[in-house]
Write a structure and sequence with these properties.
The protein has about 325 residues and is an alpha+beta fold. The chain folds into three domains: about 15-95, Beta-Lactamase (2-Layer Sandwich); about 110-170; about 175-330, Heat Shock Protein 90 (2-Layer Sandwich). Helices cover about 45% and strands about 25% of the residues. The protein is built from nine helices and ten strands. The chain has helices at about 15-20, 25, 40-50, 90-140, 145-170, 180-195, 215-235, 235-240, 300-310, and strands spanning about 55-65, 70-80, 85-90, 175-180, 200-205, 215, 245-260, 260-275, 315-320, 325-330. The strands form three sheets. Strands 5-7-8-10-9 form a five-stranded mixed β-sheet. It is elongated. The two termini are about 25 Å apart.
Length: about 325
């Protein structure tokens, strides 16, 4: 919050952290010199006071604590109760992450409706096909023809299992309890190492100070297992060579916005592998149902993981390049 002359009336903790200065040091000081180019802010202050516009948005750079500029998107608007100017500064990386999160959430909601409608349209015909195949099998003149009806029944059952898996995140209420995320990580680690006993290293880098979170342990285990197993499957060449590596890393994120809600503390759980990376053409669609880059994949593992995490108010992000892929699970703590 700035006074009409540009002096600082109030700053929040996020700006203190970005500048490396305390509120006491900033209060009453001219804010303009804290920007690499103060010209746009001075123009915004004059324009707001003259009521040329209600709000003005512009790009700027904050002078960081180590002399490194921090690019931000700035919005200056009149704060009518005080007559001052409300200056909102969004770090560009945070703004990009926020827009990406909104896209993933909107995508998830669209997928949920699509899956529900599609499942309803598939299940009824499946039941009829399976029942008709069973009745036909009883009327066949030659026993060897039953092989064909068994194929129909088996494939109908396979599709039914697929539909059930798609509906799984939305069927059962969450069983909320205090969950130790590191116990979840260790459980998943043991399961994956039992499946890939040779050629794969699963390293840990935990922050032991992270508190327990409220969640459904089974859903969190399934979400993390899907991500780690997906990483292991992408590492098949390195596993054969004996140099495959997955790292589970936990950190605390502070003052994070998830689902349009500001959280004082959040958990960041990274799953990092040294595989070939996600193909560029798939990176924007890896959470879409039935999209997969593997010939034997179903395209459901990451979709279900995202659905489980979103039910906990969190989000899964992905960054990938050849030799390093990171899936970051963000979950609110407080």
């Amino acid at each position: 919050m700035l006074a009409p002359d540009g002096t600082t009336a109030f700053v929040n903790a996020a700006l203190e952290d970005a500048l490396g200065l305390s509120r006491r040091a900033l209060r009453g000081a001219d804010f303009c010199p804290l920007l690499a180019d103060p010209g746009p802010l001075r123009q915004a202050l004059a324009g707001v006071q003259a009521q040329d516009f209600a709000a003005l948005r512009f790009a700027a750079e904050l002078n960081g604590p180590l002399g490194q500029p921090l690019p931000v998107q700035a919005t200056a608007s009149l704060h009518e109760p005080t007559g001052g100017v409300l200056l909102e500064l969004w770090p560009l990386h945070a703004q990009a992450r926020h827009e990406r999160e909104e896209h993933l959430r909107a995508q998830g909601e669209a997928h949920k409706e699509l899956i529900r409608n599609l499942a309803h349209e598939i299940r009824n015909p499946l039941g009829g096909i399976r029942g008709a195949a069973q009745l036909l099998e009883l009327e066949l003149p030659a026993p060897d023809l039953a092989d064909y009806t068994r194929v129909i029944i088996r494939e109908a059952d396979r599709l039914q299992i697929l539909v059930d898996r798609l509906l799984e995140p939305h069927r059962h209420p969450r069983r909320m309890a205090d969950v130790n995320i590191h116990e979840v990580c260790e459980h998943v680690r043991e399961l994956v190492l039992a499946e890939y006993s040779h050629g794969l290293q699963v390293a840990r880098d935990y922050d032991a100070s992270i508190p327990e979170l409220r969640g459904d342990r089974d859903q969190l285990v399934q979400a993390l297992l899907n991500i780690v197993r997906n990483a292991a499957q992408a590492l098949h060449a390195r596993i054969a060579a004996g140099n495959a590596r997955i790292e589970l890393r936990t950190r605390v994120a502070r003052q994070l916005t998830l689902g349009r809600q500001r959280h004082r503390l959040a958990l960041l759980l990274d799953v990092i592998d040294n595989g070939p990376g996600v193909p560029r053409e798939l990176q924007e669609r890896i959470f879409v149902p039935l999209v997969t880059g593997r010939a034997q994949g179903t395209g459901l593992g990451l979709t279900l993981a995202q659905a489980f995490v979103q039910r906990h108010g969190g989000i899964i992000e992905c960054e990938s390049r050849p030799g390093c892929t990171r899936f970051g699970v963000l979950l609110p703590l407080a």
